[in-house]
Design a protein that fits this description.
binds iron/sulfur cluster, 1024 residues, binds flavin-adenine dinucleotide, six-stranded parallel beta sheet
Length: 1024
């Protein structure tokens, strides 16, 4: 770890690329089949006047800093390269001002970096090296030609931030070099290298080299600091046009919308927690002043035969409230920036009647790029989408989509832009809730040094660790019986969970960072519909393998799971339930319109066919001591049926206040229930959602309304259930807390989210408080749905130890203080979920089986229905909308077959996947310290708790970097050998026998030496 980047010499850059191409058929981690080939579409002229194979590329930012970044962007399809901003402050001086990590792209993006962290001369060198590398590989690989603009692409410079800085030596030298690089040392370095190595190329010729245009760029985008005065902006642009003869665009901010305009745009799409006050809005360029200035500058450029326009938008500065980054302010990007940027574009397009050229950056991805290009806006740059899994490979799809719709720039079509703005504000995909309240996808496992691939849906997401990628893949291949076998191994209620599962797996699904997480339960239901009946028919009770017997109290999801896991593995089991049938809450409480009896019955038959004995109408006063005389093991799985908190607290309530479980029991079991015409449901969990939907379906009910003290984003219910309520057109009243109910009038206090009164801006997310203002509403019945409780009195009565808080005391296998007596499911967890109840049962069953000397079948080694690596790679980087039915599994990235996310999301390509024999995973991850600036992005997306940039085997290129780090790894020494740091922090010179490193790390080092020597070459060194 060390945030100083060490640019590669041209020799190193090219040797690396060529060696990797030979050995691994990839360049800087991008496989040859991911190189984008333009096809027959003619080039277009963009708004700057560049001729481009497509008008799409990386925005000035983390991906346009190093030569290798630019090269891979080109190879994957980018053709408009907005180079990272240069300004007078650079290198170490700037790095000191940028706290790390500096990128947070979990959902919408944030950063606290600005211009290049290299020195300006280093940045220039990098751009020249990339230019040569692009020229050579474009021709050599047949993906672009060397013409006026290399390979059909253009460099667009980005400079900042004030006129004095731009007129200073540093930036002037940069501008001069970009206008004509021939006399620069780096041009010579690259030119000489290519000339000397022409023999290595089959298609790139001397003539191509001679044809290279030494003018690297004819255009510039001006970046100014927030608060830069309008006249200063105008002076700089005038200077760039008149003195430098550059086609010039100026970055404009969402602050042009005014505070209220920006706030409203974000709030409409659920981004109300994004916090900002109005100081930038008053300090930044004002809209009216902007119109005058833009008109004058446009006229000036027209006079000179140059292009002038705006880049929308630069950034949107917001406050750090949730510790996203270690700075006070951060710059927003990604999908939340799209509505703001489009709104600015729309405003300007109307005022200029479509005649103000615009380039665009702000939330563009493969789903919206076509519509955007059809408005006439171009070129388009992206940053956040390529910081997410798939990384630069996403340019493949962006480029493909762009060529289908692109035309020469001919102004903005205002009507189409109006249409796009309307569509975006109406599109659920741009709403914050689209990500279903999920922040991080990470799980809590430490990141292993080697063999780290994992499917986070399965390990970390699913409480019963279902082999998710296997059954998704098998179902997509229509191998339903095999898919069902895989499901049934871990899941004792495949159909019930296929319909109702709360899907913790989805919260960790890699697809969440692409488009939307996979509908795993939907796929499970498809497999169950096709194969469960046949599976049951073929099932026979296995012979008993032990004399020991188990009694299970409660035939809900947890009890049936425990019984089935035990019986399937050869233990005799009796299940006792006080009700007259199976599946507890699922059968008797969850509303009929959410799950049918036939579905419940199908899962019940699985347990019956396996040989579990069920006894209904059992005495609820169970006697553990008595049971233990007949059974060696007892599992208590009696659920959580105690009354919830009275919503009116000490104000008690009227007899027309009904507890949610009483209400749902009656409604679901055809018992008489009178609720009148108007029903209020207090609460916002999943049970409240069921109550409000059930009440609406009762005869005579005219209105069923949900009342909640906070706002929708804070509702504890899953987003899916909230969406269902919305889809049924039911009202959800927010920010109202119940005070009392007299049988006809519900007295409510108006609430506010804390700090919302510190107007404008500054809102925190969670706190809520009363305003002292009240409102009364007429209702006939109030249903309290604030959460059921566990009735623990039977536990205590049976001698199970309880702690001071009244919770039953259990060990890690959920065994109570009475030996061989276990408590699982909602009876342990409180009101929870079906799959977590099964998860409990699985843990307890494992312990019970172990005591009987049996190994559970669900601990069998993984069933592999997996994909070969090439097919997994083929899916990377492609955004695909959710597909209903069996094909949905085809979107799965089978993350345990190939992960490599850290290699994709690193803007600097500092994490490398290398082939090393002798490991379970096909590739191992090596971190290159000299390319890493500790932006933190790989840490965000690695599915483990750890951080690839600190936790993986690291190669250092300088002693200073080695000393500046704690990471395990190697520094090649000038005389041969390595300075080595082991994972425990021990530092030593590696002996010839390599006795002090583990065999695994030894194999990695051998692979580096034999196959990837260019990774060990010091940055300043030259490879032969
Ligand atoms: C309205 C509602 C909607 C829900 N929706 C979902 C959903 O969509 N998805 C989801 O995953 N989860 C949902 N849940 C939660 C889920 O139903 C529970 O987490 C799950 O059913 C718990 O299973 P369990 O076996 O622990 O308990 P239960 O299902 O409560 O089963 C306990 C069983 O024990 C029996 N029993 C109790 N006491 C005794 C006794 N003394 N002697 C003998 N038998 C006894 C009961 O009769 C019952 O059959 C919902 C819950 C509710 C209330
Ligand atoms: S993409 Fe597939 S394997 Fe990866 S987390 Fe999602 S469901 Fe699991
Ligand atoms: S390795 Fe990780 S922290 Fe380092 S530059 Fe790449 S993404 Fe950022
Ligand atoms: S992101 Fe990288 S380090 Fe993390 S699990 Fe995947 S391959 Fe391993």
């Amino acid at each position: 770890m060390g945030d100083v980047m060490r640019p590669l010499s041209f020799d190193h850059l090219m040797s690396w690329a060529l060696s990797e191409l030979r050995t691994d058929e990839s360049i800087f981690g991008v496989r040859t089949d991911q190189f984008w080939r333009p096809g027959a579409a003619p080039a277009v002229t963009d708004a700057f006047g560049h001729r481009l194979t497509n008008p799409v590329g990386p925005a000035a930012g983390p991906q346009t800093q190093l030569s290798n970044n630019l090269l891979v962007a080109y190879l994957t399809g980018a053709r408009f390269m907005e180079l990272k901003t240069v300004q007078k402050i650079d290198g170490h001086e700037l790095a000191k001002m940028v706290p790390k990590p500096c990128i947070e792209a979990e959902d919408e993006g944030y950063n606290c970096e600005w211009s290049t962290e290299l020195t300006v001369p280093q940045a220039f060198d990098e751009y020249v090296r990339a230019y040569f590398a692009i020229a050579v590989f474009a021709t050599e690989l047949g993906i672009g030609l060397v013409g006026e603009l290399v390979g059909g692409m253009a460099y667009n410079m980005s400079v900042g931030y004030d006129l004095a800085g731009i007129q200073g030596d540093k930036v002037q030298t940069y501008l001069a070099g970009m206008a004509d690089a021939t006399s620069t040392a780096v041009w010579q370095e690259c030119h000489d290298w290519v000339a000397a190595h022409l023999g290595q190329f089959s298609h790139f010729t001397r003539a191509d080299l001679d044809r290279l245009n030494p003018c690297l760029s004819t255009s510039v985008t001006l970046s100014t600091m927030h608060g830069c005065p309008a006249d200063e902006i105008e002076r700089i642009v005038s200077y760039l046009i008149t003195e430098k003869g550059l086609n010039t665009f100026v970055k404009c901010n969402p602050t042009l919308l005014g505070y209220q305009g920006a706030r409203d745009a974000l709030d409409r799409l659920g981004w109300e927690y994004v916090a900002f006050d109005d100081h930038h809005f008053t300090a930044d360029l004002q809209y009216d002043a902007a119109i005058g200035m833009l008109n004058r500058l446009k006229a000036l450029a027209d006079d000179r035969g140059l292009k002038f326009g705006v880049k929308l938008t630069n950034t949107f500065p917001v406050q750090v409230l949730r510790q996203e980054l270690p700075s006070e302010e951060m710059y927003m990007s990604g999908r939340s920036l799209l509505p703001l940027t489009l709104s600015v574009a729309q405003k300007l397009a109307h005022d200029f009647d479509g005649q103000l050229p615009m380039s665009f950056s702000g939330g563009v991805d493969a789903f919206n790029i076509e519509q955007l290009l059809r408005t006439g806006i171009q070129p388009v740059t992206v940053a956040t989408t390529i910081l997410k899994p798939g990384g630069v490979i996403r340019f493949n799809q962006l480029a493909d989509k762009a060529v289908g719709v692109m035309t020469d720039y001919c102004g903005i079509d205002v009507d189409k832009l109006d249409g796009m703005v309307a569509d975006v504000f109406a599109d659920e995909r741009y709403h914050k809730r689209y990500r279903e309240k999920i922040r991080s996808r990470k799980t809590n496992t430490p990141l292993p040094l080697t063999d780290c691939y994992k499917a986070p849906c399965e390990h970390g997401g699913c409480p019963i660790e279902q082999r998710i990628p296997d059954y998704l893949t098998l179902t997509a291949q229509q191998r339903y019986a095999e898919a069902f076998d895989v499901i049934a191994l871990d899941n004792t209620a495949p159909t019930v969970t296929g319909v109702l599962c709360s899907q913790q797996c989805r919260e960790h699904c890699t697809r969440l960072d692409y488009d939307i997480s996979i509908d795993m339960r939907g796929v499970k239901l498809v497999a169950s519909d096709h194969a469960q009946d046949a599976y049951i028919q073929a099932q026979r009770p296995v012979a008993l393998r032990t004399e020991q017997r188990a009694a299970v109290i409660g035939a809900g999801a947890a009890g049936i799971a425990a019984a089935l896991y035990l019986r399937r593995n050869g233990m005799d089991v009796d299940v006792f339930d006080k009700l007259d049938g199976p599946y507890g809450i699922v059968s008797y409480i969850i509303p009929w319109f959410r799950i049918g009896k036939d579905h419940i019955e199908r899962d019940y038959r699985l347990a019956v066919a396996a040989g579990v004995n069920f006894h209904y109408g059992a005495d609820p006063d169970y006697d553990i001591a008595d049971l233990l005389t007949r059974y060696q093991h007892v599992v208590i799985a009696t659920g959580s049926w105690g009354k919830g908190m009275n919503p009116f607290g000490e104000n008690e309530g009227h007899d027309r206040v009904i507890d949610s479980l009483d209400f749902l029991w009656k409604a679901n079991n055809n018992e008489p229930i009178q609720v009148g015409k108007r029903v209020a449901v207090i609460g916002a969990g999943d049970v409240a959602m069921d109550c409000v939907r059930t009440a609406k379906r009762l005869p005579g009910v005219e209105e069923s309304i949900l009342v909640y003290r906070r706002t929708e984003p804070h509702m504890p219910a899953t987003q899916h259930e909230v969406n269902t309520v919305r889809a049924e057109g039911l009202t959800m009243l927010e920010l109202l807390a119940p005070v009392s109910f007299d049988g006809s009038s519900l007295h409510l206090e108006k609430m506010v989210l804390a700090e919302a009164d510190a107007s404008p801006g500054k809102r925190a997310r969670l706190s809520v408080r009363g305003t002292g203002e009240f409102v009364d509403m007429a209702f006939d019945t109030v249903i309290g749905a604030t959460g059921a409780t566990i009735d623990t009195s039977p536990y205590a009565a049976n001698g199970l130890a309880m702690d001071a808080r009244g919770t039953v005391v259990l060990d890690a296998a959920y065994q109570s203080s009475v030996p061989n007596v276990y408590v699982v499911g909602d009876g342990r967890l409180g009101p929870d979920t079906i799959v977590r109840a099964m998860g409990d049962a699985r843990v307890a069953a494992r312990a019970i089986l172990a005591k009987a000397g049996l190994t559970p079948d669900y601990d069998a080694p993984e069933v592999r229905g997996h994909l070969q690596a090439p097919e997994v790679y083929h899916r990377r980087g492609l955004l695909i909308a959710e597909i209903n039915g069996k094909a949905e599994g085809g979107r799965c990235l089978t993350c345990d077959d190939v992960c490599e996310i850290c290699t994709e999301v690193c803007p600097n390509r500092a994490n490398i996947a290398i082939t090393v024999p002798g490991f379970a995973d096909p590739r191992q991850i090596v971190h290159i310290d000299g390319l890493c600036n500790e932006c933190g992005n790989c840490g965000t997306f690695c599915p483990h708790a750890g951080l690839p940039y600190t936790d993986k085997v690291t190669v250092f290129w300088t002693k200073a970097d080695f000393d500046d780090s704690h990471d395990a790894g190697f520094l090649p020494l000038p005389g041969g050998g390595y300075l080595t740091r082991n994972p425990d922090g021990e530092v030593f010179e590696l002996d010839a026998e390599r006795t002090r490193i583990s065999p695994e790390v030894g194999r990695i080092l051998t692979a580096l030496e034999q196959r990837y020597a260019y990774l060990l070459a010091p940055a300043e060194g030259a490879l032969a």
